[in-house]
Each structure stands twice: as C-alpha cells, then as structure tokens.
Design goal:
Chains A, B: Keywords: DNA-binding, Transcription, Transcription regulation. Chains A, B: It comes from Streptomyces hyaluromycini. Chains A, B: It holds the Pfam family UTRA. Chains A, B: This is GntR family transcriptional regulator. The structure is a homodimer of 261-residue chains. With 261 residues, the first copy, chain A, is α+β, with helices and mostly antiparallel strands. In chain A, 24% of the residues lie in helices and 31% in strands. Chain A contains 7 helices and 9 strands. Chain A has a 6-stranded antiparallel beta sheet. The first copy, chain A, has a two-stranded antiparallel sheet with strand order 1-2. In chain A, helix 1 packs across helix 3 and helix 2 packs across helix 3. The interface between A and B is large, with 56 and 55 residues. Strand 9 of chain A pairs antiparallel with strand 6 of chain B. The first copy, chain A, binds a DNA duplex (19 and 19 nucleotides) through helix 3.
Chain lengths: 261, 261
Amino acid sequence: MARTGDSTRTATVSALDALDFALDRGSPVPLYYQLAQQLEEAIEHGVLAPGNLLGNEIDLSVRLGLSRPTVRQAIQSLVDKGLLVRRRGVGTQVVHSQVKRPLELSSLYDDLESAGQGPTTRVLRNERIPASAEVAAALGIAEGAEVVVLERLRCTHGQPVAFLCNYLPAALLELDTERLETTGLYRMMRTAGITLHSARQTVGARSATAEEAVRLDEKEGAALLTMRRTAYDDTGRPVEYGSHVYRASRYAFDFQLLVRP
Amino acid sequence: MARTGDSTRTATVSALDALDFALDRGSPVPLYYQLAQQLEEAIEHGVLAPGNLLGNEIDLSVRLGLSRPTVRQAIQSLVDKGLLVRRRGVGTQVVHSQVKRPLELSSLYDDLESAGQGPTTRVLRNERIPASAEVAAALGIAEGAEVVVLERLRCTHGQPVAFLCNYLPAALLELDTERLETTGLYRMMRTAGITLHSARQTVGARSATAEEAVRLDEKEGAALLTMRRTAYDDTGRPVEYGSHVYRASRYAFDFQLLVRP
DNA sequence: TAGTGGTCTAGACCACAGT
DNA sequence: CTGTGGTCTAGACCACTAC
C-alpha cells in the first residue's frame, strides 16, 4: 500500500532510490567492486538501515547501467561478508545486526597491533637454526633444514602481554630485527609479497611455569592463554609456525565466525 | 614438452583428463554445485594432487557441456573453501596443503559433539527467567524480557569437560531437556528452522574458582579456558548468548581461519 | 606471442514467496 | 497471480604471465 504512483513499473520505494552511485568505467577497479564498496559504505553510514530492502536486481542493474550478473556479483560479495541477506521471492535486505565492523578475521594480522594502543615489541631472539622435528612437521620441511626462530615479547602500556615464538622457512624472508620491533611479523611478510591465505589454530590454556611467570610478570600458576598456529600462503604452503603465550589477565581472542552453508 | 599429440587445440595434459564427471541436468541440485562436489571429492581422494593444474576453464566448459560462467562458479566455490588457487596467466591448481578436511568452521555446531568420542550432556538447568542486563544487551532484547537459561555439563569418557551456560530468547524454540541430553543445542536449533549465520566469540582463560573446581573435577586455581559467544541467524538477529568454561587440561579450540582479500 | 583467468554483457528459464 | 532471487547460456574484451 505504501507505493509511489510511479508508472513504468510497480516501483516499490526503497531507501536505495535516494542514493546515487558513482561508477567509473575507466577505473581499473572492477565495476562490481566499486558498487560493493559504495553499498557497504551506505550500510555503514546508516543510509541503508537494517531491514531495508535493496530493491530488485533487474531495476538496480538498469538504473546503474550495469548487467544483472555484475550487480549480483556486487551484492553477493556483501552477502558473503554477512552484511546482506537474500530471500527468494522477497528481496535483498540489510542484515539486522549491531555487529557491523568486526567482520574481518582479525587476530591473524597482528594480534595486538591494532587493538591495544601503543604496543611495543622486544625481539629476544632472531636467528637461524636447524628445524626440530616438531617445527619441521608443522612447516612441511625436512628435519634439520634451516629455519628462522623468532622470540618476541609484546607489551602494551609498559606491561608484557604475550610471549611469541615463531618459526619460518629460512629462505622465505629477510627478518630485520629493528623493523620487527616497529612492525608486526605479518605485515612484514605481506610487504615481502607473501599473501597469507589460511591458518590452522589451536587455542588452549594452562598454568604459568616459573620461567613464564618471570617473563610475563605474572605469578607462577597464573592462567595463561596459549595459541599454536600454522599459517599458509595462497598456494597452501606453510609459511609460519608459531607458539604464543598470552597473559589471560590482559588479553583475550576476539573474533567473528561466519558459517557458510 | 610433456604434451599429447592432440590436434584441435594445444591440449596440455592435466590430471583432470582422466576424470569424468556425471552431471545430472534433471537434478534439483545446481550444475555448478554438482561439479564443485565432484571436484572436491577428486581432490580429497588424491585424484587431483596438490599442485596439479586443473586445465583451462574454456576447455573444461566445452568438455562438460557447460558454459564458462557455470564452470567458474564451481571453481570459485572451491577457491573460497581454500582448496584451489587461481593465477592469472597460469591456471588453476590444487592447493599445496596437508590441511584438507577441517576447513569448515567447527566449534560452532557442537563444540565437542563431533570431536570427543561418546560425549554426554547433563542438563543442570532449563527454565525461563527474565533477562539480566548483560543477557538483554547481548541478545538485543529488553531487560527483563523472558529468556531460556540453560546450564549443561558436557563430559567425555565419564569425565567433565565443560560447563555450558546459554541464553536464548524464550519465543525462539521449545527446548526439551531430554532431547538436549542426546543432541547438541545447535543441532536442535537447526532442526527448528533456525539457520545460524555468524557468531562473535571471545576466548580467554582464567583460574578456576572453588565452585568451578568442584563442578569440573579440577583443583581450585587450575587454568580454565573460557568462551563467550553471541550467535546470529541469517537475518543478523541474535539468537543465542553463551558463556562456556572448559577444562584446559582436556580441551582446546581448534579451528581454521581463512583470509579473504 | 599465446594462453590464462578477470570482468562484463544481454538475454533466458526456473523455483519460491506472498498476494 | 506477480515479483523476487537462483541458475544458466554464449558470447566478448581485457590484464596478466610465461615463453
């Protein structure tokens, strides 16, 4: 009943009508991606409120001067991100969720770098050693092959938060100690052209040993959060194996899971 | 140099040539999905080994009697799963990874149900109460609105593993205590037509209180793994809020992260 | 230069939801 | 019934990679 007296088509009013999208066909960035970005922005800024219908894909493609598959590709990417829901016979609407921003997988790029303010890193060890059996198995290389071992202490507000131990195939990357203290390991890997793709993680807990207690400024027996991770690049080759220990009193993993049907 | 003396086209040999795919156009299951499933199976069974090229999409579509977009859709779904990698100018190859199976997000459907053998659940509490401020905030409902509170003790091999406390909007679902003891909560929700879509989790650790120690058969002060989670359905509405405590000596979270560019 | 994936088009028919 | 998204086709041109 809430319709405009439009003519050509039964044009249900949609919050989208007000928006105009600026698509640049000369740009190297794909059209579907430009559209997706602008839609995402509109959702974030609340121009498209949760529950709003997006208007059907055909009209949308006509209005934008795009083909329907291209519009679908844009919408699909936002559905994958969890920002939109499609319902056959109904339409596409903005998801009813207060959780809008933290959809990306964090904790893979620097665990703390982005979270705590002013994190610092002290590199305790950075050298090449032959791989132990455990490390070799995790990295899929021969036992005894050369790897870089890295031990770092991560602090925020002058207090230690985590002790990080990482192993990387020696040939992979030059690890400058100085840069490691100002940049995260993953950022360095990305800069070196290594594109991370997936990681297998195990998160557990245990009581602090005497040594760990000293290192992290905790009492012996305090609860610690532990994490073991093997990270893979986009070809599926293991590029990093890490064994981290966090002070549970000062850190927790926070992440978003997406269930794919 | 390793080519067949084929004619029509420069047909690079691919492990795929040997396979034949059975596509059923009468089936209600989409063609791209049928193809994706059979490709995935071939990869899992090792018919397509890591590093194998898939052969170009055009040839593949011709061989299968499909259009290229359809073939691409199938391949794309496996790329999304992390089983394949595409490289422009090179081709599509099977990922170099030993991690093949645990790509799905587990730990969202029953944390232990699938892992530990013979898990049992004892429902300690199952009643309707007014929502506390914390629960109301997590579920996006009014404080004091009716919610179901669930307390369960999960055991394997006769030993307690976790204490699970969950809150659900009361109108959402009928929770039969008896069925809860044999089925996971998420399975019950799925059966009730609630399709989970995403979840926000916080994983931490702390020392066991005296009460928790008794409940979980640990010593007071032992390290425990904690998890708080809000789960959302496919419209983004919160459908469950949980606060779980695991015995760190007997359980760890194990999961796979996928990085989307 | 040749071959690959990345993008895009302009249609088509179908299945499902709400009327 | 109408309108929606879901699937599919048969092409096209481009950008990148490797030779």
